[in-house]
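Consider the following assembly input.
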Amino acid sequence: MGERVAAFCSWLELTPLSRQLQTVEWVIPAIQTVHILAIAAVMGSMLFFNLRLLGLSGTELPLDRVSRRFVPVILSAVVLLLATGVLMIAAEPARSLLNPVFQLKMALLLCALIVLWATARPLRHRPDYWSETRARGRVVRALASVSVGLWVAIVFAGRWIAYVRIH
Amino acid sequence: MSVLEWLYTTGWAAAIRENEFAFPWIECVHVLAITLVVGSISIVDLRLLGLASRDRPVQRVLRDVLPATWTAFAVAATSGFLLFSSNAPAYARNPFLLVKFGLLLLAGVNMGLFHWWAHRSLKSWEASPLPPWRAKLAGGVSLLCWIGVVTAGRWIGFTMLSSP
């Protein structure tokens, strides 16, 4: 498995797209800047969605409206993050694909998206779903706290990719 | 000895240089705080531009969002200061740092002017989905300033040898 990924990295590094990305000096920081701005959109949106789920902010608004305001922003930003992420991988494949921190980040991202889906999905047909029983109230507060923790961990892992050197 | 040299010789600056985990961890906190500053202030900016949260009074959005923005800003400023002091003379020579501080100053002046103006007029328009042009201008300038701050910040990291 590891050898196959390494072989894929060696192949990807030699493609014209990768070479182009490596040679134009400002391209990488520009892609990283768009990536960070998209993370900012995710972090602001997920924070206020989760604070509403925790009952700490925007409590005068119905939950489904807060969900409709922020969840589409998170999903669009994640698409932009994947696109800019793919470009960064294309530029330096081994830096990420062979990096355990990158693999951890992708696992955390998957968990964060599953938690987001689990919290937002029931609201589409039943706006009061999470307040119908006290048990659900506890579940949604737990999910919201886990969500905040996961996104913070994703940001930390993202920065650590640059520091864990792959030889 | 200049202030920059003094910062470089402080105990905490030396500790950040000598411990291989200190710099990346402080940078993690700095990036996290900046994404929260920009992610939260843009909710206000988009409301002022009349592009999002149009059904909420502006005052509500401000009260909801700004405490988070200010908390995150305090963390970003503190962590940024620590990163700066670890290599103060070199950072001070980085042109992108000057650009970043200039944009931060502009964002601050823009915010000050907006609050000074809105202080009296806010009640008359805060419920309207499309705020008056002064509010839209303030929202647009703020959004552009923060995009610029993130861009300049990334370029500082990219042009300094100490941080990849």
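Chain B touches chain A at residues 24, 27-28, 31-32, 34-40, 42-43, 52-53, 55-56, 60, 64-65, 68, 147, 150-151, 154-155, 158, 163-164 (CB under 8 Å). Ask yourself how this observation constrains the way the partners meet.
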